[in-house]
């Protein structure tokens, strides 16, 4: 025992006994002055922090971004120059499930990356799908409510999901991906990541380009059917954690090919679709993906809570050479992600080791709960700016070129003049017969218990994507639930009730 460290109080004093509570007599009761007992119990009560409202269940690791391509004419970002190697943290997650949810559940996966660049942290907070369910951030809290538990039953509600989706046709593209094979990957290594939003690049000459980021799995896509997932979940709820942790521990480092699509700034006025609409992709034929390098995961965290649970990603973290776009969802996330971390982790969440930049950094934030860093201004007398005491000053060279915006302030109806069907159709046409059948069956399974009027409203959208799409889902509904298309009056009955 001589070479083992001494157990101490958090104040550093040695603890003589960590086995037996202090009591009055052998049989008790316990004395209030046994402060170490109280300290242990009080700390246990405080071990949980609020879990993320979305993306609560996650798995993560460290790695490296290596740039081999040359996109220096588009961006001055140092992390994206040829030959650069940037350390990073990548956290994968499901969206809807709580922290104890099973990993192998059908859901969109988060794909959030923090690049520790020499110019500050750049966070790309993406998903394993290139699009999202809504295009207007006004609808984001409503959408998330449909994915969470019903206030009375405390159960997740397929009725709420399909009610919202059928009333929001912009969700069709993402719903089709979610219900397709790619909606249930085997493990994080076997899926793509997408920055999803349109961001911008800017170069030394002050020119701006629109950009989308893609991370293509080198391991290939591997997915589970619903039946396979049931069997996996029956054996382990932690299949992603096990797979990711073990593969890295075994030295088999997962990799992703990194690509960008680039759109010249003025093209945004010419495309038939809004290139800033998060429910749309940029067709590859119009904007071919350019290979720029490789992302590898090669190190597991030492402490899950400190490094993955406390990791705080926010699209607000950009670096010189990378900027935002008019994408309404991105604009809202720039606010709401950082705000979520202030609530979840505290005011100084960016000072936590996993979130802190790896380059020198200075700011004038002062005081606040858990301020353990003192002052980061560069001089003790410089706690305001401007000052005469050598405190940190602005860096005009980091100035971004102006973002061209115009228009009258109004609430524009985002459902007018938007084609919500062509891109889901292009995707549907990519599927072979087996993929289409699994799509139909996954949708029918997810519609169990949904009232007929909602099902009919959703089927009308599938019909508009492709007649085979609507027909295929109708057939699957009939086989799984005895549902007869159009045979259900608008009563709010479940397909099961209607079939009886
Ligand atoms: P392309 O044929 O050039 O590209 C199709 C892309 O679709 C592929 O590169 C692949 O993207 C992805 N894809 C292929 N099979 C599947 C599948 N089973 N499930 C999900 N995605 C698949 O056509 P477009 O660029 O015109 O896109 C057509 C449709 O493909 C889009 O409407 C969209 O739904 C989907 N898609 C398009 C992407 C894009 O950025 N253009 C990205 C992802 C999907 P990847 O190489 O990323 O795996």
Can you characterise this structure?
Strands 1, 2, 3, 4, 5, 6, 7, 8, 9 and 10 form a ten-stranded antiparallel beta sheet that branches. With 500 residues, the protein is α+β, with helices and mostly antiparallel strands. The chain contains 13 helices and ten strands. It has helices spanning 35-45, 140-147, 158-166, 172-179, 226-235, 239-249, 304-309, 328-345, 422-430, 433-446, 452-465, 467-481, 495-499; strands at residues 58-67, 85-94, 109-117, 120-127, 193-194, 199-202, 208-217, 255-264, 290-299, 322-323. NADPH dihydro-nicotinamide-adenine-dinucleotide phosphate binds at residues 130, 177, 180-182, 192, 214, 216, 281-285, 423, 426-427, 430-431, 435. NADPH dihydro-nicotinamide-adenine-dinucleotide phosphate binds next to β7 and α9.
Secondary-structure blueprint of this entry?
Layout: H1 35-45, E1 58-67, E2 85-94, E3 109-117, E4 120-127, H2 140-147, H3 158-166, H4 172-179, E5 193-194, E6 199-202, E7 208-217, H5 226-235, H6 239-249, E8 255-264, E9 290-299, H7 304-309, E10 322-323, H8 328-345, H9 422-430, H10 433-446, H11 452-465, H12 467-481, H13 495-499
Antiparallel strand pairs: 1-2, 1-9, 2-3, 3-4, 5-7, 6-7, 6-10, 7-8, 8-9
Helix pairs in contact: 2-3, 3-11, 4-9, 10-12, 11-12
């Amino acid at each position: 025992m001589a070479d083992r460290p001494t157990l101490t109080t958090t104040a550093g004093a040695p603890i003589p006994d960590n086995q037996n509570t202090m009591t009055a007599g052998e049989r008790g009761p316990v004395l209030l002055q046994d402060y170490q007992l109280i300290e242990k119990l009080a700390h246990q009560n405080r071990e949980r922090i609020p879990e993320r409202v979305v993306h609560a269940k996650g798995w993560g690791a460290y790695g490296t971004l290596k740039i081999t391509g040359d996109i220096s004419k588009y961006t001055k970002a140092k992390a994206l120059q040829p030959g650069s190697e940037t350390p990073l943290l990548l956290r994968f997650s499901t969206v809807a499930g709580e922290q104890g949810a099973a990993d192998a559940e059908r859901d969109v996966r988060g794909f959030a990356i923090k690049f520790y660049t020499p110019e500050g942290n750049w966070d790309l907070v993406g998903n394993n799908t290139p699009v999202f369910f809504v295009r207007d951030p006004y609808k984001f809290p409503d959408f998330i409510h449909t994915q969470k538990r019903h206030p009375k039953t405390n159960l997740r509600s397929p009725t709420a999901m399909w009610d919202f989706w059928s009333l929001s046709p912009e969700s069709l593209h993402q719903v089709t991906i979610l219900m397709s094979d790619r909606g249930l990957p085997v493990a994080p290594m076997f899926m793509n990541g997408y920055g999803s939003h349109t961001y911008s690049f800017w170069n030394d000459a002050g020119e701006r380009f629109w950009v989308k980021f893609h991370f293509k799995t080198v391991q290939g896509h591997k997915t589970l059917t619903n039946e396979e997932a049931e069997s996996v979940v029956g054996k382990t709820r932690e299949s992603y954690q096990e797979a990711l942790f073990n593969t890295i521990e075994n030295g088999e480092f997962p990799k992703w090919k990194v690509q960008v699509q680039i759109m010249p700034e003025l093209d945004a006025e010419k495309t038939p679709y809004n290139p800033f609409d998060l429910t749309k992709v940029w067709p590859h034929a119009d904007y071919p993906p350019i290979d720029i390098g490789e992302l590898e995961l090669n190190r597991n965290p030492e402490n899950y809570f400190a490094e993955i649970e406390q990791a705080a990603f926010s699209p607000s973290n950009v670096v010189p050479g990378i900027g935002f776009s008019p994408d309404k969802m991105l604009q809202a996330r720039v606010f709401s992600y950082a705000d979520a971390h202030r609530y979840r982790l505290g005011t100084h969440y960016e000072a936590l080791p996993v979130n802190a930049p790896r380059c020198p950094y200075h700011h004038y934030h002062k005081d606040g709960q858990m301020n353990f860093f003192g002052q980061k201004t560069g001089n003790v007398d410089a706690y305001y700016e401007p000052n005469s005491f050598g405190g940190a000053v602005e860096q005009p060279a980091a100035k971004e070129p102006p973002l061209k915006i115009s228009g009258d302030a109004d609430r524009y109806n985002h459902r007018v003049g938007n084609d919500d069907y062509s891109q889901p159709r292009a995707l549907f046409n990519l599927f072979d017969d087996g993929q289409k059948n699994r799509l139909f069956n996954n949708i029918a399974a997810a519609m169990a218990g949904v009232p007929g009027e909602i099902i009919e409203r959703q089927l009308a959208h599938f019909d508009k994507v492709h007649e085979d799409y609507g027909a295929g889902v109708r057939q699957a509904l009939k086989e799984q639930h005895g549902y007869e298309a159009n045979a259900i009056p608008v009563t709010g009955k479940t397909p099961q009730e209607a079939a009886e």
